[in-house]
Amino acid sequence: MILTLAFIACVIFSILGLWHWYWALGGSLGKAAAIPEVNGSPVFMPSALGTAFVGLALISFAALIAGASGLLEMPIPRPVLGGFSYGLAILMLVRAVGEFRLVGFFKRVRGSEFAQWDTWVYSPLCLFLSIVSFSVAIHNVA
What we know:
The protein is mainly alpha-helical. It has one domain (2-141). Helices cover 66% and strands 3% of the residues. The chain has helices spanning 2-24, 48-69, 78-97, 113-141, and strands spanning 37-38, 41-42. Helix 2 (48-69) crosses helix 3 (78-97). It is globular and about 50 Å long. The two termini are 17 Å apart.
């Protein structure tokens, strides 16, 4: 079961990473729903380099989960990768909970396209990825 969940998480992280690279290269599909807004204005405008870096981080998360779960052989011991998986689990949980204003389950700013996607897709997805990362970590470190 853990391998199936790890595989699903790897696919999700990879798709998200590739999607960010698409945006970094100038793509626009889905971009309007990806940035928090206040009063109809984006809170920030990510640079192409920053977006590409996020894409690289997401692909790295896929590799981490693949290595820690045993889906991919890596030169780093699985218990070490499992330890990093704990960090990823915490990161994804923090993203799911949010910062209590613009993102996460407990955000106060609602009503924008981003806020709706965040409530129904982004935050639950981050919670799922947190649970899988934590499960992979426990499997390797406990």
